[in-house]
Every structure is written in C-alpha cells, then in structure tokens.
Design a protein that fits this description.
heterodimer; A: alpha/beta; Rossmann fold; 2 domains; six-stranded mixed β-sheet; four-stranded antiparallel β-sheet; about 35% helix; globular; B: mainly alpha; ABC transporter involved in vitamin B12 uptake, BtuC; 12 helices
C-alpha cells in the first residue's frame, strides 16, 4: 500500500460521520400548552416516537399526559387550549397547525380517554364513522379486519354502543381509529375502568396491531406496570415536564420508578419532586 | 255525536298537525347536530317563502325559482355557520340561543329590505277545497291541499331518514350529535357538518314555507309559526325526527278536537293556546318528550 493511499484511508476513516440518530417518526419538541390563555399545563415537553414502536407516557393524574396527546392530535383547540411554544413534527413535517381532520388524513388518530363512543350509534356504525376521512372505499374489508382483531365486536355489531360493556367500548374506540388506516395511534388510558384481565387482552391486541399492522403507538397510562410491560420506551411526566425517560425494561427496573409508580413505596419520597437530582433535569431532551 | 263529523275534525286536525311537523323538523335537525335551539327557524321559513315567491313574481319559472331559493338557503346556512356559530363555538347554549334570536330579526329585516314588506299570495296549483268524491261517498270533508301537504311532509321525512341512516354524511351528522369531541377525534370536520345541517334545515324551511305560504299567504306573520312548533317539540322531544311528526299529529288533532268539543263549553277560541296546555301537561309526565333521546346511563 502506498503512503498516499494509506493516508487517504486513514482520513476517510476519520471523517466517516457519526451515525445520526434515526429520524424520529413523531417528535415533540419543547412544547408548552396554555389553557384559556392563563393556565400553563405543559412546561416544555419533548419526546420522540420511532417508527413501529410503542412508547408509553406515564405519570399521575394531572401530570399532562392527556394534554400532550391532545396537543399532538390538536383536539386542544376545542377545549380552549393552545400550543404556545415549541413544535411538533410527524414524518419530518410540522403538524402543530393542522386540524384534527388533516391529522387523521395524515395517519395520526387519537383514541380518547373514557372511550367516547357514539352511544346512540350501533357498534358497526361507530366503526364506519372512523373511516369518514377515507370516503366510501373498501369499507367492508376494513370492517372485517377490525372484526378479526376484535371478534367480540362482530357479535355485538348491531347493538347500540351505549349498551355495550366498558371493554367492548374500548375495543370499539380502538377499532374506530383503525378504520382510518392510521400510521400512529395516540391511545389515552385504555385501561381505565377495566378489569385486569380485560386490560391485558386490550394490551395484547395493541401489541398485535403494532407488529402486524405496523401502527406506532403513543400510549398514556396510569397503569405503569402494564404499560412498561408492553412499551419499548417510556417517558415519565410530572407537573407538565418530562422528569425521566428510558427503555421500557430499564424504567421498570429503576428504583425510583418502582417506588413512585409501581407501589414499592417505603417512606416519604412520593414523586420525583422530592428527589433533588431530577429537579434540574433539562427541559430540552 | 256525529261520527262523520268527528272524523272530519280528527283528520283535519291530523293533517294540520303535519304542517306543524314540517316546521318542527327544522328545529330538530339543528338541535340534534349542534345542540342549538334555533329560534330563527321561523324566520328562515319566512325568508325562504318570500325569496321564492318574489322570484316567481319576477317571472322566474316555478322549478327554477325553487332551485335558486334552495341555493340561497344553502348559502345562508354556510354563512350562518361562518358568521354566527364558529365564533361562538364552546360558548354556553344560552349564548347560542340568544344569537339565534338576533339572527331572527336580522333575517326578517334582511328579507323585507330586499323583497319589500307587502304580503304575497302563493299558488302551488292545488286548491284548498274538500275532495268531492270523499265528501259524496262518506260525508267527510277533507281538503285536498292538506292531503298534498301531508304527502310532501311524508316524502321529506322519508328522504331525511334514509339520508341520516345510510349515508356517510348522515352517519357523521348523528355522530356529531352524540359526541362532538369524539367526532373531531376521528377526523369529522365540525364546521362542514354544521354548514350541512344548517343547509338541510334551510331546505326544510323552504318546504315548510311553501306549504304555509300557500295556505296563509307569504307575510311577516309566517315567522310566528315557529311558536306553533314549540309545543310539538316539547311533546315529541327535541332530538327526534319521528317525535316531530308524531308530536305534530297529536297537537294538530287535539287542538282541533278541543276547539270543536270543549270550546263551546268555555266560550270558544281555545284552539290557539290549547296546544300549550297539552305540552305543559306533558312536561309534567315526560320531560324529555315522547321520543326524546334516552339518556343512556350505565351503572
């Protein structure tokens, strides 16, 4: 090998750029949300969801989980909330000014906390409303797909959804979102008010949808234990800030998380607020 | 008691009730989809009828005038959504109600400004006379215009029912009526839906305006038929299309029967307020109305 070529290869090797982090599918950067022009709810939240992942958003009541999801799906506007700082990108495109209708067309659909089924519509009609943005094409096939994941809905498809059980309503709500052919589902508290067995069933289906339909999930949950079992990655919110984040498994092992959220509490420390080291955690993740 | 006469009064009352139903329908549509009690429905009826008759009097062909008026009503519906509803989104219902009262006067003023305030006669080509074959064979006098109006109302309801039940937009309308937030979350654009609802209500107002205009003439007093629709709504329930029909029938029949059989005992003239008595009594027993939406309450 000549000297020149030796140098060349050395230079080449040196200048090989560091592999950049994979482009995030959904990225929320330093978002601040204010309700009614005065109430500051999110104080600079940043998080990322990679394509094909399940990411959990954890935290207590009022930590800002729902607000974060609504900031992304832009359901905030209907509640007099507003993103006042920061930006949100989906597949490299700014989305914080889009209407919910435009977002659903782009593939971002929220399943709201408390199911919010259309009570006086039948289960099947509920599912069909989910396809509103798509017009009338291929409805049958998509209905069948939803029924494959939720066989129980097929049995109840002619029932008024207000008269179905809580679990069936949660399934209807997720199925309804699926009808829009989403790329990303923002799923808010799927476990709320459901029996543990049913919660597991729902989470299994979420996992299934994630692997088979390539739907990415951002999942707000109070049921930390369940969420960390299924999530690839997790963020912990407290008082409108992200106080910790990490791989699902490592979060589940973390002593503080165990103590604050998984019920291993021993003493006075009840939240990250009581731990000095997290106080100064940067707001720019 | 003369049986033929009883039936004549009853059927006449039922058919008059259909005319109330036509007006009540407009209220129901808007109330269902947006939770707004649209006080301006009566003014919309007047506006539609006046626009139509003025166009016809200026030499437009009947059908052309109908289409143009319909287009005007659709534009009006969209304008109301843009100018009145959208800025008031998320305000308490009473605010929206007040806004529709304001709208009533604006519409009345506007229509008279554009078309003048003199009353017009409206001719649909159907005489308000008893059907001869029926009077001759049974002795019951039924106006053929009433029958025609009932047919039109029936057709209108059938079309609306099919639209709501089987079309994508209809389904979205019902979804919005059930849960605004959820409708937003699946990507149903509320402003389009509201514009559509107000346009459909405008269409219903046009039909009601033609029927009432043909019967009573197109004049300012037409706006007050909104008040006639109130007891119908209380009886039938504010959210039910079927309720508007059945409520109309009951109100129409009871007020005519009361006028004929109870009226003489108290000196007559009870037809104009008897409907409200029925409605008030009804409120005590069933406040949500006959077909009012059942509040689904799971325990």
């Amino acid at each position: 090998m000549s000297l020149a070529s030796f140098f060349m290869s050395a230079v080449l090797q040196q200048s090989t750029p560091v592999q950049p982090a994979p482009q995030a599918y959904l990225s929320v950067s330093n978002v601040e949300v204010i309700y009614d022009h005065v109430i500051l709810v999110l104080k600079g939240v940043s998080l990322q969801v990679q394509e094909g992942r399940i990411v959990a958003l954890l935290g207590a009541n009022g930590a800002g989980k729902t607000t974060t999801l609504k900031a992304i799906s832009n359901l905030l506007r209907a509640e007099r909330g507003e993103v006042t700082k920061g930006w949100i990108e989906f597949r490299g495109e700014r989305i914080e000014r889009l209407t919910p209708n435009q977002l659903v067309r782009k593939g971002v659909v929220q399943v709201m906390e408390g199911r919010h089924c259309f009570q006086h519509l039948t289960v099947e009609e509920n599912l069909l409303t989910g396809a509103y943005t798509r017009g009338n094409a291929d409805l049958r096939a998509d209905l069948e797909k939803v029924y494959r994941y939720f066989p129980r809905l097929k049995d109840r498809r002619k029932s008024q959804s207000g008269y179905t059980s809580g679990g069936e309503q949660q399934m209807t709500a997720i199925g309804r979102a699926l009808m829009a052919r989403p790329k990303m589902i923002l799923l808010d508290e799927p476990s709320m008010g459901l029996a543990p067995q049913l919660v597991e069933e729902i989470f299994e289906i979420v996992k299934d949808l994630n692997t088979k339909e390539q739907v990415s999930f951002l999942l707000a949950e109070q049921n930390t234990h369940m969420a960390l079992r299924y999530a690839d990655y997790g963020y912990i919110l407290e008082n409108g800030r992200v106080v910790m984040d990490g791989e699902g498994k490592s979060l589940a092992q973390n002593e503080d998380v165990k103590e604050f959220y998984l019920g291993f509490s021993s003493g006075d420390r009840k939240s990250f607020r009581d731990v000095k080291s997290y106080r100064r955690r940067k707001r720019w993740l | 008691m003369n049986v033929a006469f009883f039936f004549e009064v009853l059927i006449g009352g039922l058919l008059a009730g259909v005319m109330y139903s036509l007006v009540a329908l407009g209220f129901v549509l808007i109330y269902k989809a947006s939770g707004v009690f649209n006080f301006a429905q009566g003014a919309m009826v007047f506006f539609a009828a006046l626009t139509f008759i003025s166009l016809v009097e200026r030499g437009l062909n009947f059908w052309l005038a109908l289409v143009v008026t319909l287009a005007v009503m659709v534009v009006l519906g969209i304008a109301i959504e843009k100018v009145v509803l959208r800025p008031l989104v998320n305000q308490p219902p009473i605010t929206l109600f007040m806004a529709t009262i304001g709208l009533t006067f604006v519409l009345e003023g506007l229509s008279q400004l554009v078309w003048g305030s003199q009353p017009h006669g409206l001719e649909l080509g159907i005489q308000d006379v008893p059907m001869e074959w029926l009077s001759q064979s049974t002795g019951i006098n039924i106006s053929q215009f009433d029958i025609f109006a009932a047919g039109v109302a029936g057709l209108l309801v059938a079309v609306l029912a099919l639209f709501f039940q089987y079309t994508r937009i209809g389904r979205a309308l019902r979804a919005v009526a059930d849960d605004h937030q959820a409708a937003l979350s699946v990507g149903i654009p509320l402003k389009h839906i509201w514009a559509i609802v107000w346009s459909v209500a405008g269409f219903v107002a046009l039909v009601a305006g033609l029927m009432w205009g043909a019967r009573n003439g197109v004049q300012y007093a037409l706006t007050f038929i909104a008040l006639k629709a109130l007891p119908v709504l209380i009886l039938g329930g504010f959210e039910s299309v079927l309720g508007a029909i059945v409520g109309g029938l009951i109100i129409g029949a009871s007020e005519k029967l009361a006028e004929v059989y109870i009226g003489p005992m108290v000196g007559g003239g009870i037809e104009s307020w008897f409907a409200y008595v029925v409605a008030l009594l009804f409120l005590l027993v069933r406040p949500q109305g006959l077909f009012g939406e059942k509040i689904i309450d799971r325990v």
